[in-house]
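User: For my dataset I need records formatted as: sequence, then C-alpha cells, nothing else. Please produce one.
Assistant:
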Amino acid sequence: MPKTILITGSTDGIGLATARMLVPLGHHLLLHGRNPTKLEQTEKALSALPGAGRVASHVADLSHLSDVAALARAVTEKHGELDVLINNAGVLKTAETRTRDGLDIRFAVNTIAPYLLTQRLLPLLGPSTRVINVSSAAQSPVDPKALAGQGHRSDLEAYAQSKLALTMWSRSMALSLGDDGPVIIAVNPGSMLGTRMVKEGFGVAGGDIRTGADILVRAALAEEFAAASGQYFDNDSGRFGSPHPDATEQRKVDGIVRVIEAVLAEKTGTGAERP
C-alpha cells in the first residue's frame, strides 16, 4: 500500500536521492525545501518519473522556528495523514551562523527543528508510522549553553554536537512515547558521502550518495526496522550499534531535552507541543 512520506531537505543530496528511490514505488511524497524555484523544479522532475505516485511540496526555512511550525500545520491541513517522516535537512557550513531566533544555525536546523516538527506532527504519527532522524558518525558531547544559543562554536564542533543532540532526543522520545507512538530511529547514513555539505565542508568529492539514500529507504519501509524504535543504525558498519555514550546516559539525555523544550518555550511561546 502506498505510504505518505515527508522528507525534509529533499531538493538535493541524500534527501533528493531518497525521494528518487521512493517515488517510482508509487508512494505519496511530500517534498520540502527553502528555495521555491528549486523545489518546484524538483517536484516536476520527480512527478515525471515512471510509476510516480503523487508528489507535493512545501516551502519552509527550518532555521526559522515559525517556519517549522507552519510546515507542520500545512502538512496536517493539506494531507491529514503521514506514514513516514524523514528528518533529513542539515547544515554544516554557512556564511551566517546565527538565526533570527538567536540560535546557532546547526543546532536550529539539525536538532531543534526536527524535534519541533516531529512533536507538532505526532497527531498524525501512530504506532504503525516511522520517524527517521538523519544523524551522523560525527558526534561529540553537547554543551547545553551552545544548544541554547550562547557562545560560538566552530562549524564541525557545532555540527557534531547538534547530531549527538538529535540522536539523544530520538531515543528519549521513542522511550517516552512507547508503543503508542511512531517508531523513531536515528540513522547515520554513511560517512563522507558525496553531498554538497561534504564537498563544501571538507573539500572532497565523497562517496556514492545512493549508499545513504538506500539505508533511509530501508529504514522507512523495511520490516527489519519495524521494532527498532529508540535504536541507532550505523550505516558505516551496516548494523544497529551504539551511538556516542552520552546518548544512553539518561541524566544527560534528560538535560538536553529540557534545554530544547526551554528554547522552544522561549522562542515560540508554546513549546514543542501541538497547540
